[in-house]
Amino acid sequence: MQVFTFFCVESDGSVPRFDVTPCADDAAARVRAFELLDMHHRCDFVEVWRGAQRVFDVFAQQVAAA
């Protein structure tokens, strides 16, 4: 398991919430990011970090398309 940090970014650039979750891999972390976007509708996107490395972003528009 790897520990990922998820930052929920709103349209004004603020980050009012974050989540730290252990995930098996990047694919599992991507699933968690989609879950967070589904829970927090004010977030425009989620930044996904593994330690000090920004791994990828998941955007709210991707949730609508999925």
From TrEMBL:
It comes from the Bacteria. This is Redox cell cycle regulatory protein NstA.
